[in-house]
Amino acid sequence: MHKINQVLCDALQSGQMNRMVFASKRRKSIEYKRVTLRPVSIKGELMYQAEYQFDKKVTHENIPFFEAIDFAMDRVENDFKQINIMTETEDIQVLASKPANPKVVRQKLAQRREAANLSHNRKKRYIIEDGKPCDFLIKLGVMGEDGKVFDKHYSKFRQINRFLEIVDNALDSLPTDRTLRIIDFGCGKSYLTFGLYYYLKVLNDRDVEIVGLDLKEDVIEFCNKTAKQLHYDGLKFLTGDIADYKSDGADMVVTLHACDTATDYALINAVGWNSNVILSVPCCQHQLFSQIDEPVNQPMLKHGIIKDKFTELLTDGLRGLKLEAHGYDVDMIEFTTLEHTAKNIMIRAVKNPDATEAACAKAQREYEALRDMYHVHPEIDSL
Ligand SMILES: C[S@@+](CC[C@H](N)C(=O)[O-])C[C@H]1O[C@@H](n2cnc3c(N)ncnc32)[C@H](O)[C@@H]1O
């Protein structure tokens, strides 16, 4: 524990710490999934604010400066196996599944990170700010050369920022000691794929290779040309069908609004590669619509519009269970507000190295019971 104590103490007292994130629970019974500690100034006094992230809520607690080290050590000893510390000059990852023998990985930042914002109730700040020129957003016509976001593209701008926030939260589940490999299936015009590269490589200096795949040749040609003009060397685009895509793997699989069973093929690839993180926003979930056959719900499902929404929920509920059966922790989260698109449920799946066989088998049984109750044959079964 001495080594961990030293790392945490240095960070908390350095005056340069941006945040400290505790993740990867030691026991299933711990109610919160993650705790983030940030410096805050309250009535002129420097304190730390702990944010507890539960499944469906977030709570906060303010901790006096000199109690922060006890608080942090308590989290490591009792609650979490992993700590990620972001300072103005480096990222530090502490892997403490064996607290007596922790692994500490440090990565210097090429560019100094902005100092922490100490205001207590922070105003919502976007990762990419309106008013600051950002090369890929200028190139894709979302903002002007002066950095001002065009009114008609504001919801896209918000969607990109929301996506980057979700990626930011998933970062501690990705490897830090080698090139990160990411695939975006059904990337389309690739606002979000460019955003992902900008966030990881340009803002965070991560060693990253991103591939965007789409059926549309002209769109892929445009994206490759744009990546070249932006000198985004680790970003490339390929034409192809997700179902036929062959690769030896990816640490993170992204698939946003890929239609119908295209999402299933993306998930099947990700599970086959044992990818650490899957971010999927399904759309056009039609496959099961004509298969659903269940008498109790029939009086409700006789209405096409209800059956349509129900099919979406059943399809994604089954996908979530199938991922749990393969050892993933799954959350269904709101991707973006309905104002941007009605397709706003994201399946966020993070590989749980400690998933037990019993938990996987339970999820598989639940999957089968739900599937059989509605007499459907989801594509994802080809897993
Ligand atoms: C609605 S767009 C989404 C684009 C982007 N991911 C986004 O969210 O802004 C869906 C994209 O998925 C692509 N797509 C659909 N099925 C596909 C498949 N089987 N293989 C590859 N791309 C596919 C389409 O060509 C289209 O560009």
Keywords:
binds S-adenosylmethionine; 26% strand; single chain; 2 domains; Rossmann fold; alpha/beta; 383 residues; globular; seven-stranded antiparallel beta sheet; seven-stranded mixed beta sheet
Question: What features would you describe in this structure?
Answer:
With 383 residues, the chain is an alpha/beta fold. The chain folds into 2 domains: 2-108, no CATH class; 135-382, Vaccinia Virus protein VP39 (Rossmann fold, 3-Layer(aba) Sandwich). β2 and β3 (45-53) form a beta hairpin. It has 10 helices and 14 strands. α1 crosses α2 (68-79), α4 packs across α5 (191-203) and α9 runs antiparallel to α10. The mean pLDDT is 91. The chain binds S-adenosylmethionine. S-adenosylmethionine is lined by residues 186-188, 191-192, 213-216, 241-243, 256-259, 262.
TL;DR of this structure?
With 383 residues, the chain is of the alpha/beta class.
The name CATH uses for the topology of the largest domain is Rossmann fold
SSE class: alpha/beta
Number of domains: 2
Proportion in β-strands: 25-35%
Work out the helicity level. Answer: 25-40%
Task: Tell me the number of strands.
Answer: 14
Unique bound compounds: S-adenosylmethionine
Compile the SSE list and pairings:
Layout: H1 2-13, E1 17-25, E2 34-42, E3 45-53, E4 58-64, H2 68-79, E5 80-87, E6 90-95, E7 103-108, H3 135-139, H4 154-170, E8 180-185, H5 191-203, E9 208-214, H6 217-229, E10 235-239, E11 252-259, H7 262-273, E12 277-283, H8 298-301, H9 304-325, E13 328-334, E14 345-351, H10 357-373
Parallel strand pairs: 8-9, 8-11, 9-10, 11-12
Antiparallel strand pairs: 1-2, 1-5, 2-3, 3-4, 5-6, 6-7, 12-14, 13-14
The structure holds S-adenosylmethionine.
